[in-house]
Amino acid sequence: STEVQPSSSPQRTLCVIKYALLLSKILSHLFHSALPTLLTEDGSTPSSAIVDQVYTAILEAVPALLRFLEERIGSNDKDVGRNAPVHDKEAIAGDLDTLLDVLGSLVVEVQHAHPLPCSRFVGPFLDMFYSNLMRAVSSQIAVNGQVSEVAPTALTAPECFLMCAMRFLANIVSCSHYMPDEEANEAIAAMRSETISSSGDRRVITSRGDTIIDRVAIQTIVQTVWFDFFTEDRLRQLADVSIKHFMILSAERLDEWEADPESFVITESQRNVDDDLAACAQNLYLSLVESKAGKPIIAPLVVTMLGDIGSQLNAAKIEAGEVTADAGNRNVLLWNSIYTAAGLSVNVLIECEGFEIDTWFEKTLVPCLASILQGRNKVNVLPVLRHRLVWLICCIAHCISDTKTALQVLISIINNEPSSLNDVAVRLGAVEALTSILNVHYDLIDEFYHLLEIIISSLYRLVNDCTEINTRAQSLSCISLLLFHVVASGRKVDYATANAAVQPLPALWEVATDQNILLRRDVLSILSGVGLAVGRTQVGHLYPIVLPMINSSLDPSCQDRDVCLVEDVLALWLNLLRLATSYELHWESLFSRVKDILEQDLEHLKILMLITEGYILLGGASFLNAHYSTLQNILILVVGQTKPRGAAYTALVFEALLRTFPVEGGTLLLQGGIMRTMLSSCALNYQNNSACEPE
Description:
mainly alpha
């Protein structure tokens, strides 16, 4: 930035920036891989002085670059190279953004990799990042914990720098080497352990590699971080800014949601601190509220926000169309951010004095949801709060008592007709929350059993409304979970419910190919659940659908066969076999697949032996007459080839065969050479042959 003057040509400016960018990348790689080697304890070596110079230069360059962007790349005729072409101005701005990102990432990533060697630089960079982060927020920052209308965030710094600033602050807060509590401080714990070097140079092994430990340096960095920098006011300010400004849904994200709700949900689940400003803000907030110093300050701040019932109900009424807001949807977006913070830190908040989550759920969350769901808004608005409140139920499912009300709300959302207010994003959130509740609470069968057919049909409708494998699998997994709750309760499903669960599956099975083939696992799970839920008397209705699926999945010549599904297919086969009441032609034609699989490997020996045992017991003489040679070949493949655990399952087949057919079974073992193999193995074991297992 010192090389570039207002009169400089665009070409010279670009050249200088690219040169600085290249050097910064080289230094970043060098420091990340070898900073402890470059630094010495007393700082007397040339390399140590160079490191100090580089960090000093970065500390001066970053604010200068920020000012440069504000003053020179603006739209008020102060551009670099006043007569420069537009594409040169855009190139300069883009390269400056990249340079800021590289310099900021250097500081962030090197500190994360080498926290103790970097401790001497932490204080100045904390001040630099914090001051420029706060400058980027144009609205008045409230530090008294009161909820206020959020103003549009006016950023005077590039997003890449803001992300670096928040990542750095979050890393410092969560760094185990800077913890004020000696019992939690990893560096002090390493000094006390046996990982210290025998040479006596205080070099110890930590989770970040080996480094030299200096107790005085540790005490200094703890003082700098937790007593000099992170004061109560700063902790409140950072939490407030994270929630009310950087977590706010941007216009771009709202546009993405409106254009494609499913894509929005997937993108939201994949956001990370490396490339998303809101994710960085969430990470910073969570680091602060979970820290020992931040918890008693920030948790009450959020609890105070959640105590403003009137503002929450007002936001809900705005989204429901019952109230016209002078400030547009800013209050809705604000509460979306506050609820996001509450959901992320719910385990911290429930420990906060004065906060009763059941009371808040009953007095605030449920009325807000009721207002939104009962609203008659005909305006085409995004269901921001509806989506966030459903997500919040997912977060608090493990710690609320009134799960019945939560379940009823979620089911009503899933069963409602799709609309702009009940879009794919909202319904996917409801499915996730419903799954979360069912995974935690096992006594809710009475709340949904009478609605099971409608719920399953609604979930399949959502599957059809989605196009991505992850979102479709989410709804299918929920159907499977509902069915297994029915089975666990000892109840059965009627014909209509079973038909609703099974009818869409053949079509789903056919389209689940290539990258979507793992959807077949969910299909198999649902079929297994239906089989168990209808019981022995009705399971036969599944055979025309299920057995061809099993056969094609296990056929070695089938082109779309997936080895990842073999275990699931075999489990379904075994479940249906155990539920069968009679041996039919369907079963007989399928048994040869046992031999096909064993000829490839013995990976699935256990379940294949259980299936073989089931065939003997179910099929009796009809089975043995049809598959005498197949059974003989199967036993030839496994006898003498398995370890003791596998031999125990093979013994189940022997027992079933010889108990059911003493004469025919003995003849089968003798004629196939199986008996000879068994005797030879026993003899070798008796003679303590090294090739035999002790058992």
